[in-house]
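Researcher: I'd like a candidate sequence for this fold, 167 residues long. If you have to choose between options at a position, lean toward the conservative one.
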C-alpha cells in the first residue's frame, strides 16, 4: 500500500510525489533544512538525514549525442560520462547546460527529481542501486528526498540499469 507524502509546510507535494501517489508506489518523504550555501546538495541530504551516501542518489542531466538523458548515481561518487554514453548505445556524453536541464525537467538545479519531470527523458540508473532495498532521490525540491525501492524507480522512469558511476 502506498504511503502518502507527509503534509507539512516544508514537505508539500511536488510533481514527483504526485506521480508516485498516482502510480500507487510505496515511498517515504524525508524533509530537511536546506542550507543555501551548500555546494553539494546530495552530500548535504545524506548528512542531514543520517543516510549513508551510497544510498542517496543524485539526478544529473547529460547531453548524449544531442539528446538530454537523466543519469542517477550515488552522491558518494561521480558520473562516468563514457559509461553513460555506452549504456544507451551512444558515442558521446557531456553534462547538459543547467538552464536546459531546468527548462526540460521543470525542476531547479539541486532539486531535479528523476520522477514527475515536465518531459520524460531517457534515464539510466547506476547498477549499484540494486544492492539496496531502498534508495533516496530528490523529491523535486532542495531539502526534500524520496525513499523508494530501486526497482520501483527504474520501472516508473523506464530506466536502464548500468554501471555509470565511479568512485
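Model: Candidate sequence:
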Amino acid at each position: 500500500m502506498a504511503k502518502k507524502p507527509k503534509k507539512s509546510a516544508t514537505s508539500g507535494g511536488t510533481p514527483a510525489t504526485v506521480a508516485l501517489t498516482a502510480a500507487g508506489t510505496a515511498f517515504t518523504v524525508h524533509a530537511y533544512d536546506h542550507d543555501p550555501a551548500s555546494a553539494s546538495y546530495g552530500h548535504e541530504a545524506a548528512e542531514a538525514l543520517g543516510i549513508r551516501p551510497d544510498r542517496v542518489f543524485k539526478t544529473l542531466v547529460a547531453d548524449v549525442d544531442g539528446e538530454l538523458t537523466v543519469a542517477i548515481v550515488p552522491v558518494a561518487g561521480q558520473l562516468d560520462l563514457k559509461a553513460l554514453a555506452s549504456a544507451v548505445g551512444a558515442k558521446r556524453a557531456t553534462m547538459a547546460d543547467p538552464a536546459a536541464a531546468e527548462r526540460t525537467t521543470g525542476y531547479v538545479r539541486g532539486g531535479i527529481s528523476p520522477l514527475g519531470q515536465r518531459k520524460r527523458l531517457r534515464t539510466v540508473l547506476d547498477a549499484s542501486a540494486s544492492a539496496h532495498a531502498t534508495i533516496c532521490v530528490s523529491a523535486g525540491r532542495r531539502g526534500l528526498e524520496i525513499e523508494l525501492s530501486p526497482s520501483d524507480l527504474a520501472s516508473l522512469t523506464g530506466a536502464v540499469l548500468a554501471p555509470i558511476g565511479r568512485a
